[in-house]
Amino acid sequence: MFKLLFAFTVLILSSNASVQDFCVADLKGPESPAGYSCKSVTKVTVNDFVFSGLSAAGNTSNIIKASVSPAFAAQFPGLNGLGLSAARLDLAPGGVVPFHTHPGASEVLLVVQGSITAAFVSSANTVYLKTIKKGELMVFPQGLLHFQVNAVGFNSVAYVFFSSSNPGLQITDFALFANDLSTKLVEATTFLDEAQIKKLKGVLGGTG
Amino acid sequence: MFKLLFAFTVLILSSNASVQDFCVADLKGPESPAGYSCKSVTKVTVNDFVFSGLSAAGNTSNIIKASVSPAFAAQFPGLNGLGLSAARLDLAPGGVVPFHTHPGASEVLLVVQGSITAAFVSSANTVYLKTIKKGELMVFPQGLLHFQVNAVGFNSVAYVFFSSSNPGLQITDFALFANDLSTKLVEATTFLDEAQIKKLKGVLGGTG
Amino acid sequence: MFKLLFAFTVLILSSNASVQDFCVADLKGPESPAGYSCKSVTKVTVNDFVFSGLSAAGNTSNIIKASVSPAFAAQFPGLNGLGLSAARLDLAPGGVVPFHTHPGASEVLLVVQGSITAAFVSSANTVYLKTIKKGELMVFPQGLLHFQVNAVGFNSVAYVFFSSSNPGLQITDFALFANDLSTKLVEATTFLDEAQIKKLKGVLGGTG
Amino acid sequence: MFKLLFAFTVLILSSNASVQDFCVADLKGPESPAGYSCKSVTKVTVNDFVFSGLSAAGNTSNIIKASVSPAFAAQFPGLNGLGLSAARLDLAPGGVVPFHTHPGASEVLLVVQGSITAAFVSSANTVYLKTIKKGELMVFPQGLLHFQVNAVGFNSVAYVFFSSSNPGLQITDFALFANDLSTKLVEATTFLDEAQIKKLKGVLGGTG
Amino acid sequence: MFKLLFAFTVLILSSNASVQDFCVADLKGPESPAGYSCKSVTKVTVNDFVFSGLSAAGNTSNIIKASVSPAFAAQFPGLNGLGLSAARLDLAPGGVVPFHTHPGASEVLLVVQGSITAAFVSSANTVYLKTIKKGELMVFPQGLLHFQVNAVGFNSVAYVFFSSSNPGLQITDFALFANDLSTKLVEATTFLDEAQIKKLKGVLGGTG
Amino acid sequence: MFKLLFAFTVLILSSNASVQDFCVADLKGPESPAGYSCKSVTKVTVNDFVFSGLSAAGNTSNIIKASVSPAFAAQFPGLNGLGLSAARLDLAPGGVVPFHTHPGASEVLLVVQGSITAAFVSSANTVYLKTIKKGELMVFPQGLLHFQVNAVGFNSVAYVFFSSSNPGLQITDFALFANDLSTKLVEATTFLDEAQIKKLKGVLGGTG
Description:
Keywords (chains A, B, C, D, E, F): Apoplast, Disulfide bond, Manganese, Metal-binding, Secreted, Signal
Strand content of chain A: 25-35%
Binding site for Mn(2+) (chains A, B, C, D, E, F): 100, 102, 107, 146
Number of strands of chain A: 13
Distance between the termini of chain A: 78 Å
Largest sheet of chain A: 5 strands, antiparallel
Structural class of chain A: alpha+beta
Shape of chain A: globular
GO cellular component, one term (chains A, B, C, D, E, F): apoplast
Largest interface: D-F, 58 and 57 residues
Order of helices and strands of chain A: HEEEEEEEEEEEEEHHH
Domain Cupin type-1 (chains A, B, C, D, E, F): 52-198
GO molecular function, one term (chains A, B, C, D, E, F): manganese ion binding
Mean pLDDT of chain A: 93
Oligomer: homohexamer
Helix content of chain A: 10-25%
Low-confidence stretches of chain A: 13-17
């Protein structure tokens, strides 16, 4: 009996040789609109599906008193093509993740320490604002502006999860002030005062 | 022969009775994540697939000297579920469509009159800026911040097309200043000065 | 200026009146293959986007010494159509989430307390097994068999996130033994011994 | 032990109460771009997932000596939203399924009796033509023109499967000649001679 | 402050190094079912997102008195993977774009000069016919047969936009008559007369 | 006239040179989450779209008295990216395809000889069981456990079709017992007795 079943096993296994249950990112291969190329299955190990990079607190010794550590497909290759990714937020007292969007994904936030005030703004300009406590979840629909600020006097920590292995991250301030877009064009397209723009360009390293 | 073939015709037609080639929006039915409910095929006419609302120039007698007229599924029901929509931009001299995103779609712009300076900013904060002339196209990838400004001393007109029948439109200034999000939170999450925020809240009708 | 800009605001807002940034589940409306019907935007509040049901530990006083608390679209309506959902795992000492699949989603697991030994099995029958510590992530590709067991002598807690607002959950033991599928057919299709099947049917409430 | 596990069972089952493993078509509910509404799970039986309508030969006593019997979601409600459908082709000697397309799906053909000559034409106008024998498969990529003709002197039978539960079916001759599109416009847009058009309009019941 | 924020900037930027906001086509790399390979971001410039090839009128000195100029991903690499593409139609007096389909996309047409009579035919063989004036839009659902003819005595110009960066284009006449499919098979699968087929094969360069 | 039209033909053909109607798998190129790389169109022939490997009966001289012969994209390259694949089931008297899932696809089964008893189990642990006769279809929703057993005293044959060119196949017994997952962990995660597990590991070649 063993022999016969083993024959069957081999048949099935060989038919599965090319089955693509997953596509661990080969960061050196060509990319397509669907994501990174797949690493050869023979080189894949469990470590491709495990990520330890979000275990430790990020460095919050910066002006926003916060850090955002991504676990996208580029950092966590096992996620490639699976429609999921993650990030860790550390917010020191007074810490802020400024207004930003994820162009390619919706987001769910889970507070694991402290408490975080978060909001998103809809296309109709309505603000959906709430203070989220430890163990609570909040969802931010795809592409909409949102922010997170620490709501307590000690460190808060959250993990966020995205509906894409490549959600993108566009921080509005950086998009407006941390490049060489001319002050004149920023002024024309934001209604902000010239002095305000120049001040923030100075802070964020923008030119023009 | 006619009779036999006619029998065949009837067979095929009846099998097609419920074929869903399209799903013209019934704006009064329930909505799903995939879009509006479908109008009964028996009530659909060619006029559901034609839209005249973008023929005339929009009103540019406003502070941005510009107008944006949408032809999304809500205005043009034949688009529902087909992965496409449109809008018309009219830009008087000095006219500007301020920084904005479309949370759910990529966009292609076609200039049909005049000339328009447009740009988008990538997640890496790089600016892709160009002046587009009549008959030229520019594409804005999904969810990224972009703007359009008139580049000539007379009216410019463009049509834009989206990769969704419901692309959304979030104008950054309106999202930040045209609602009741407190000045304190806007300040914390944008790095803008309080005076600047209050000024723009005043202009855009925001409170708090 | 205020007046003119306000006019523009109204124009834009009205054009956005029907924009569908999100589709909060109306659990009483018709369902479609894309998910639940959308609740009217005028009835949506921030509470639709926040979920507190995973804050407290689940009850682990059961045979598996574990609990799985879902936050799918049915529990957390704001997720509907956004391609994301979540669940909380509580594992007492000796606790086990038995072999199961999610037919419609990939999963990322985040350990927030203790340590969990988890594994998935690929189509080629390879086991990807690892003990995940607090703050670490593991991904389980869509539809593949996987399990989680507590790896420490005290309570472990994890949150899992899915790439669908309706991932499904099929626990293999329940599918095989907790219904009226005849012992004879279970025997024929699993190679398990009759006595074993009858024993587990007894435990899990199956008949036949 | 039974009691405790039973409690766990109930917990899991209740959390699954709203899980949408499938969406059997409710043909009387509203349709969305994603398909038909879902029948209540409590009313679903195994018969919704089984279809007997393709067991018997179709009637080939017609001019094309062939019949096409669909099993799309409208006929076979269990397919709704699952990305699959089927049809049966019966081809008497000399039987032909004329040039047609499926606007919304790719197709795989399986010959179960006789032999069929089939072809599709690519966008580059290349013809991919082959005679398919019993037990062989041929694939027709989405939306491309293709046909099937009986290659033997007795009845041939094939089953075809589509990558959508609503693939559509547009037979070119019927689209051109079986409606009220004016002969003049057909002539202008097909380069066919007026006499030819009028002849086929006559056969197929077209007017104008 | 500058220093600290700059540190934060660098952190964010480096995490974004591999973010894939877009996938400009590298026409020499391998293709996948999702489209062309992506050009290295370091080689991408704004010119990849701008296309001037549709600015000038196409040559209408041909038998159909019309020209179709595509801006698909192969011509306009910035569109790759973004779910959009375009084409320009020039129609001299009497000009016609003959019956055709786009196997992979829906289409929206915008008339920018003159007036165009257009129609599509549904799976139920219903004709949706309308004369579209300058500034008006018409939508053609995916995969369905449609045509456009000039409705005025001077040149008409339209731009069309597709819901895919690779919509395909299959002109029915070319598919039937511009290749080596035998006259006998064309006759059998179209019901056209042999003489008619041979005449059009002659005109269009077909053989067999 | 010929000359002019031919010019038009050439224009259209050249614009189509890069159209991707299909993406025949190049099994040696890089894979992406969307599937295999595309073979050069110039090397594609009709044989890429035809598959003869399911014409002959599979070998049922094994313990399950059954065989499963796949025609996935790895075996039938023309299917790559088209959202379809197939397999042939041969069931000798007493033959069984044991409980299994397809992680990435729904399935439709067509019986072409004999009669087959099949069932799937939903997330709510409901069994949908039916004996399917020649010419009948049964659908198995994505990712759910299902099986097929011969219902007659002679050979039964079925063809199954999947909603993906890469559906995957995970046979529960092989996933549990045909690898090196320790008996202790299998016991903990399945509730099966140690003796039962060791017996099946022995039969299926598992270790540990």
